[in-house]
């Protein structure tokens, strides 16, 4: 990311503390922002409530608060609701249209969107916004491993060929920018939204 882009990010999220799961690679890695002196890393198995609680406790104890929770790696429990203003989930284009992916995956992503909508209503009275981001396929290490493909350009070519929006390639950083918008005060009245970042793919399929 350029120096200008980093400055813009710092300005938009000035004074905010975020906890991002799945930050080791792909979308989560692209969304982790800041210099090493203001970023902390901790192992967290999001299927383990204790790990989630410890991550939240670390953020609150080290930085005094927790403004943003980006559930990029999976679904966590209620621990993060103690001191937060914005919750984000990574869903998928499959929550908007069927593309032949396994039923278990489709079901989980629909559940994430349903949870986000339900929480947006339930937590609104506490001033907590809840939104989803639904990206089209991105050649992250996870997807490349799943497809047993080593060349990410092949995946990009397939996605671009099947897509309706031509002339650009969807990258993990694009999802990070969508998360930045939804987490910032620019989206202070945006809640209950499932934001597609799919180049209109879901509208034509």
TrEMBL record:
Keyword annotations from UniProtKB, A to Z: Oxidoreductase
Pfam families, per the entry: adh_short_C2 (PF13561)
Keyword Repeat attributed: no
Family the UniProt entry places it in: Belongs to the short-chain dehydrogenases/reductases (SDR) family.
Protein's UniProt name: Uncharacterized protein
Organism for this UniProt entry: Hibiscus sabdariffa (roselle)
Highest classification ranks of the organism: Eukaryota, Viridiplantae, Streptophyta, Embryophyta, Tracheophyta
